[in-house]
């Protein structure tokens, strides 16, 4: 992938996130490492929505959070990205958003239960960050997110939102959508007041392995891209 292709993928990711429940005014951000670089990443600027990312307004940022290319304002929460990238060389993309159902679930104190297929992706793999409801404005706070994330792909931030990482921007985007979908299903199920029995750990873990395929994330990303208005 070239840097221009990575920028194009970031534009597309933003449009998909905007269309699928991740917009909260201009809050939320998504980034992807500059291909071939361990020191720089491309990121949505502040003051625009997910759906307003263009090839021209994307910022290039280093792992200290310093903007090295681009003229827009940088999100103060850039440290979620810098510290996750530092801690996780295997991840190529990071996002943070405030999707309503995931935030609602985070307020209940419940963990995400494996009661649906999208939820299975996060079985025994969705820790909760409980230190702050405030913005993650310092490297130390960013390190707190990275610590909670550990070896996983996503963090639920209590009363705030989600952080998701992936090996590509496509994987990060689809994982974020699946997390919000899983949270919505659980909220709906909880609202009935009935306790649904869960399948065995073995069955859920087998499904989790099946769902976690980079090729399938790309297929789903491209499908959602075709559904967007042109
Ligand atoms: Zn936030």
Bound small molecules, deduplicated: zinc ion
CATH topology: L-fuculose-1-phosphate Aldolase
Overall SS class? alpha+beta
Cα-based radius of gyration, to the nearest Å: 17 Å
Uncertain stretches of 5 or more adjacent residues: none
Strand order of the largest sheet: 4-3-2-1-5-8-7-6
The number of distinct β-strands equals 8
CATH architecture: 3-Layer(aba) Sandwich
Q: Using the coordinates above, name the CATH class.
A: Alpha Beta
Helix percentage: 40-55%
Spell the H/E element sequence: HEEEEHEHHEHEEHHH
Globally, the shape reads globular
Overall pLDDT level: 96
Number of helices: 8
CATH-level-4 superfamily name: Class II aldolase/adducin N-terminal domain
Distance between the termini: 24 Å
Please provide a brief summary of the model.
This protein has 230 residues and is an alpha+beta fold. It has eight helices and eight strands.
Provide the descriptors you would attach to this structure in a database record.
L-fuculose-1-phosphate Aldolase, single chain, binds zinc ion, alpha+beta, 8 strands, 230 residues
Question: What is the fold's blueprint, element by element?
Answer:
Elements: H1 3-19, E1 29-33, E2 40-43, E3 59-62, E4 67-69, H2 78-87, E5 93-97, H3 100-108, H4 117-120, E6 128-129, H5 139-149, E7 154-157, E8 161-166, H6 169-191, H7 201-211, H8 214-227
Parallel strand pairs: 6-7
Antiparallel strand pairs: 1-2, 1-5, 2-3, 3-4, 5-8, 7-8
Helix pairs in contact: 1-6, 2-5, 3-6, 6-8
Zinc ion (ZN) binds next to loops.
């Amino acid at each position: 992938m070239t840097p221009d292709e990575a920028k194009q993928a970031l534009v597309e990711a933003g449009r998909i996130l905007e269309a699928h429940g991740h917009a909260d005014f201009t809050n939320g951000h998504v980034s992807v490492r500059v291909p071939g670089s361990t020191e720089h990443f491309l990121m949505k600027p502040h003051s625009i929505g997910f759906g307003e990312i263009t090839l021209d307004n994307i910022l290039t940022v280093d792992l200290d959070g310093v903007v090295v290319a681009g003229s827009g304002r940088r999100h103060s929460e850039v440290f979620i990205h810098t510290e996750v990238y530092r801690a996780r060389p295997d991840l190529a993309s990071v996002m943070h958003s405030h999707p309503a159902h995931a935030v609602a679930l985070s307020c209940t104190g419940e963990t995400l239960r494996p009661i649906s297929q999208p939820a299975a992706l996060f079985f025994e793999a969705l820790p909760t960050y409980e230190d702050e409801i405030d913005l993650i404005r310092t490297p130390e706070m960013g390190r707190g997110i990275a610590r909670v994330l550990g070896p996983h792909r996503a963090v639920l931030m209590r009363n705030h939102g989600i952080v998701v990482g992936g090996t590509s921007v496509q994987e990060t985007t689809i994982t974020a959508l699946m997390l919000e979908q899983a949270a919505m299903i659980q909220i709906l199920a909880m609202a009935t007041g009935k306790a649904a029995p869960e399948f065995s750990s073995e069955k859920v873990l087998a499904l989790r392995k099946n769902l976690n395929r980079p090729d399938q994330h790309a297929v789903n990303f491209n499908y959602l891209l075709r559904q967007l208005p042109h």
